[in-house]
Design a protein that fits this description.
Strand content: 5-15%
Oligomer: single chain
Radius of gyration: 13 Å
Largest sheet: 2 strands, antiparallel
Strand order of the largest sheet: 1-2
Distance between the termini: 15 Å
Order of helices and strands: EHHEHH
């Protein structure tokens, strides 16, 4: 199963920024796309806003979650 949402902690790792900066970026992206505060942003929305390659980010996030699942099983 694949994940389609991205969280500030992952954004911080991908961009090499602080968690606080990543939270501010998430709020900025939500404002830009008119997303309510309760909804997460998608990997696609993040990539479009930051002009990053969707496939690379999607695979990076889903490979890391798959490897974590493999270790706990």
């Amino acid at each position: 199963m694949y994940r389609y949402c991205i969280y500030p902690k992952e954004i911080a790792i991908i961009l090499g920024k602080s968690y606080t900066h990543s939270c501010q970026l998430v709020r900025t992206i939500k404002d830009a796309y008119g997303i309510t505060s309760k909804r997460s942003i998608s990997i696609k929305e993040f990539c479009e806003y930051m002009d990053l390659p969707h496939d690379d980010i999607f695979n990076m996030i889903n490979q890391s979650t798959m490897s974590l699942r493999g270790k706990s099983a």
